[in-house]
């Protein structure tokens, strides 16, 4: 039923620890989730609000309500738990993002995404850390050098969840894939930075340590990706070989969910970037596994993953909203409320500057490598990308709690100020920046739908170019594509064969499109025969492709009868 | 992703309490779940094994493995948590049972189910309690009178989960609905009995207390049912009025899940029988809500609920299996292992006798009220019903821990013996009785498929009887049924109109079929126009019935394209 939800709630220890109140807390939380969904639905057509902000505001209101009922005494109203967030709420969100992402768009912009996600986050981290060292000391905040660097890592971590809410994959596919892709890579970078800051001897930073950090990042990125890909391929192989659907659709759904979650947990266990792992696991699963299961399982997994992700997102914002009233910390900082607000202001400014410091220069660099003006990121788009990634969310919150409290508690004034400032930054950036993003996108990119479509899809003129790289293999390739097309009119299969570029330079040979072409060939020749995928599961007896739509309709009717 | 699973695992505290091992424990558990699913799939055609037994055995093996690795030191290997079981694992299982149950079959046998579930459980409770008082004292076990009565309640609680696994709803619908229905009502009775034993002053039992208990049961049964029905109707009404599907299928799925879970938690909060509540919520949701959502949501909810239930079931058996090696208690009883085995034997015997003591007499009573020989429960069926309800499972385990330990710990020898004996009874009854049930059903009811079909469906001869109760309203009724049939060829709608019995006696007037007829009329006239349901949601713009199958196929193709 309420999957993640229920269990996790128990950790919140609302008011007291007894069973009765734990049940009451879960009941309250589930009720609030229902309210958020209904209100979110009613506000769907509203141009300002989105579900995150609704949940955040409902959370804050409920927090105030509980505080008033308990007579302001429940200082431990809610304890923010990093475990709850990282182990139970984040995996479904990121997995679903990988599962539903437009893979073509994502891999075409891969170099820009890596540039923003890795180098950009590093720049942002440096700017925020240096700014914090320079500015915070002036307003009577004394932190160690390690803590300043941790602040940099905390506020360099963008909120991928909120990005998913403010940008629309269908309306602005380029921006969506850039900002969201950056967010995923950003996570790997943040993890490396945050762990590095906590583990390395930071009193003397030199080139060796910098190289070590870079090597660490590469190792983390590659191993995390491989783990996710392996988990995805394993699920595809197991389902293709054993053909679960013969006995039960439920086993297919269960094994997909469990293997995806397993990849996340294994990654956590090995101290890798679990977000990267589960993201790539989602991509692989949607490319292979999803095509190996029955029609019913396809519909079920697609919507179940989306629903889980949706509920987890609302849950997080509701939780962050309720958590904002952490009376214990607010009491400690109440004497220096002005300082806390100043710190929040400084941090918000640094977040703005830190992001600007890499979006504009790196966009310029990225534009240099692109020839077609349509592929370049113009200034208006740069502003949108800059703005859409400003939100700080539960990741920052979780990291701040990890750095400045010991299991949620602190008595040190400066640490309490850091926690309350983080809360203010998260609330302000999510609500204010979040509210402005939708109208901003509409203002800056008024015909965004048209514009991005022009950029994202292959230019129509290139359709007539003969692919010179094909040589004698053209026939067999056409065969393969023909087969793909026969199994469903998908834009991917029909687009690629026609768009292999002229090999007029080495750059073109290594361009994403050529790479994509070779990948397709490899995929069709080696991967799909083993792991399944669209058009490659026709020989298993009783497999999905054998079963006609007619059969599916029969199933649906049978299900209706069973249920009555 | 792994919804329920993950979070709950943290409570297990495998080996130590640090984050690292908690992650390791979750990883291990998810891996085991995957293994159970794959092995269960491979053993599907095996006539002896089922998924429960597989999971139980894998659990025990893993427990042994961990014990050996830790050098026998991890006495607190796993702590059985009632919360984990009652709050997170049981709801999806029981809800799904209500959601997928054959409603017609269930309500037709309602009186027999109530007889077995309420009176039967009481008889079983009395037999086991008296037997325990008489026999256990002879082998040097000294418990208070309250504890003996608690033992009666603990072992009168049948395991509905295991029943679902050994009986097949399609092959033996009558037996399935009787045994499973009894299990659900049994839960309400057990809760009343167990709570009564813990709260009432049991030193002087008199008629007032007995009446009080009976009133308590009635109150519990009625309020729990009403709560479930209201939650189900609320979900139907909200989804019908707001038409979530217009914006997002995911909201529909989420709201159905959350409202179902909310009904369970509210019931827990008010100390009602949450199992009864969520069971009826499932029935109402499948009757109304399910018909108000989009086709995608229908497929998704049907399979998601089944998958969640399936995973939760495996989880429970895996957990019970691992929990069997509760070294702390085994150490305490090691000096009196013989006593513990004797106690287990006595309890197993009492369970056998206690169930026999009500199945055979009450079946005789039930047969007296039936006229047709086809509707009577013959001796072979009585034996099957008796045997299929012998398994004791996680409910008994949870109640035993509640009674004989304080948050999982105990140092009293007799209490430890009770825990280990419960574990033995649960393992033995699940594995041995469970293994025998499938072959037994096949042996006793060789043509069970044919037989039960004859009993469950209306006799063919009665099809020609004119329903005399219809009077002038016959036309409008035919209209209604016609509409229902037009919306899908369902056995329910087409069967009922023809089978209203002759009103040759008052008994016939009040017979389940007549009641069913009036219910259908009421349902069609008042309920469905308000809450939707099959054939009653054609006027909402863009509602499921408007969207053709063709549209659905388009959606599926679109989804395929999106995912690639």
Automatic annotation (TrEMBL), chains A, B:
The lineage of its organism: Eukaryota, Viridiplantae, Streptophyta, Embryophyta, Tracheophyta. It comes from Olea europaea subsp. europaea. Gene3D superfamilies: 6.10.140.1330. GO terms for biological process: regulation of intracellular pH; sodium ion import across plasma membrane. The chain crosses the membrane at residues 22-43, 55-72, 84-101, 113-136, 217-239, 259-285, 305-325, 346-365, 385-404, 416-436. Its main location: membrane. It is a multi-pass membrane protein. It catalyses: K(+)(in) + H(+)(out) = K(+)(out) + H(+)(in); Na(+)(in) + H(+)(out) = Na(+)(out) + H(+)(in). This is Sodium hydrogen exchanger 2-like. One of its GO terms (cellular component) is plasma membrane. Pfam families: Na_H_Exchanger. Residues 40-442 form the Cation/H+ exchanger transmembrane domain. GO terms for molecular function: potassium:proton antiporter activity; sodium:proton antiporter activity. It comes from the Eukaryota. It is found in: Membrane. Keywords: Ion transport, Membrane, Potassium, Potassium transport, Sodium, Sodium transport, Transmembrane, Transmembrane helix, Transport.
